[in-house]
Amino acid sequence: MKIVITGGYGLKNLGDDALVIACCSLLESCKGDVFLHDPRNSYLPDFVSKEIGRQYIRWKGKLADADAVVYGGGTLFYSYSEAGINKKFGWGRRIIRGVQHPKAAYQFIMSWIDARKRRRRRKTTIMLGVGFGPFHGNELQKRRALDLVNSCSDVVVRDSASGSICHGSDTRVTEAHDLCLIPRFFNRLYPSIGNGKKEGIIIIPRDWEREIKGKSIGEGLKQVVENYAMEGGKIKLVFFSKKEDEKWKCFAKKLKDRFGERQVKIIEWEPEVGSIADFLTCLEDGEAIISMRYHGVIFSMLKGLSVYSVPIDNKLIYLSEKYSVPLWTGDENLRNVSYDVSMIRKKIERAVLENEKLLCDIVVRNFSL
């Protein structure tokens, strides 16, 4: 059997890079060959082979030609643009949008064709730990997601909001946890090995904007960080993406130039250089972590660290509610932000056990081991 793993991989994003590792580790015992869908011809096969310790190669054909396809984790289907379509003028608007955004139109058409081919050929397709939405009225993208859901034998979503998108589907849909909450990462990332003094604040930034009471969360956090630096506080800015977050990187560089490297450190994920576990040791020496990234919160919880979830996106709010992680409000005193993580730790331990059983059962059910 030829199994192909696909997702939003190969973009030098730590969260997505971790998701493909999680997916590969879950399929290690499967009979057959596991391939990586890597249309960008990226660093992905070498990176995964190094992390897992066995050779993985790039799938060179179409997804529809594989014996089985696994959509492995992450927010795979969403739209951050207002795209409501009036029924009366629906097709006209779709055509116009297709001309304006040919890449998105091509992806939609090809996924629609692939889903129907796979259903007709009765090929196995599953989704593990995926997120859906928000769609902001983009019914075209929402239908694309539902079409793929309907072509699957099993779909595992990471939160109830994603599960609600699948209502009405005949596919077996189960709510679980993020794909990274599995024993592989749990055992390798915890307990934290740092034994030095914890001082300063760690920021995991993202260039996404959201306002609360008319004020930008991101700009507000920058001001808090700058004030903290002016008071002599130590700051580490950890970037999970090599290609994104240019605004925050510009801010970080100016901050470092102003206050010096002893007070301001900048660290950036580079998949070609080190391992995930080695990179994440940079989170261990701060009093607390303020994360604008979803997997920044996930990995901080796995490492048993004090973390705040910055509510720039609904998925960070869902994460906070699900695991009792405090939301960053902007009113916190950065001199006193560490807290007791024991309750969160218990929830994460339970989540890892639940995820392991559920995901392993689904893999066994779909692929004879």
From TrEMBL:
UniProt KW Ubl conjugation keyword: no
Domain of life according to the entry: Bacteria
Pfam families: PS_pyruv_trans
Protein name per the record: Polysaccharide pyruvyl transferase family protein
Keywords: Transferase
Organism of derivation: Alloalcanivorax xenomutans
A GO term, aspect molecular function: transferase activity
InterPro entries given in the database record: Polysacch_pyruvyl_Trfase (IPR007345)
UniProt keyword Transferase, yes or no: yes
